[in-house]
Amino acid sequence: MIEGPEGAGKSTLVRWLAGQLRAEGHHVTTVREPGGTPIAEAARKLALKSRHDRAFGAELFLFLAARADLVERVIRPALENGQVVIADRFGLSTLAYQVAGRGLPRADVEAALRVATGGLSPDLTLILDVPVTVGRERQRTAGKVKDRIEREDDTFHARVREAYRSAFGPGIAHIDASQSKKAVQDAAWREVAAITALSMRGA
What we know:
With 203 residues, the protein is mainly alpha-helical. 56% of the residues lie in helices and 11% in strands. Strands 1-4-5 form a three-stranded parallel beta sheet, with helices on both faces. The radius of gyration is 16 Å and the shape is globular.
């Protein structure tokens, strides 16, 4: 899984890694969260694009509904077919944005997250780290139209970034995304190549 704050370059890295793995003969499925199924795309639109105000708990469950459907309909079947799955965001995003960012109770969110994923966890999580100001400038330069969460203030995004920076555990690797694109790609490939050698079932 590829994780990190806004403007870190997650989508770009997902595409690059998929290309590299395919060139090495792997069958690869890429997904973006929230999204990837009709239900997940509808939940994405409600959570990120709707003009209607919604409670933070409602936002959480929209994201989790999207993830549950994606896991059941896309991710698990791909893994069962021996494919490598590379996701642009997964469970760690929920902890960073809804717990650290929104302030929802961690234990409750973790319990709901386990239901949404069916206990599925990634073999490898690459966390791209970039300062909030750098990420915002990248988005501005790219002309990105901001969604509801991207429009939150710098204090919110600083909490999200810190949650990512403090994440640790098996399979979690941190990469300084303020480096050159090639440096980021090289660092990511070292991690992916290592886990691939151990018969990786998902990334």
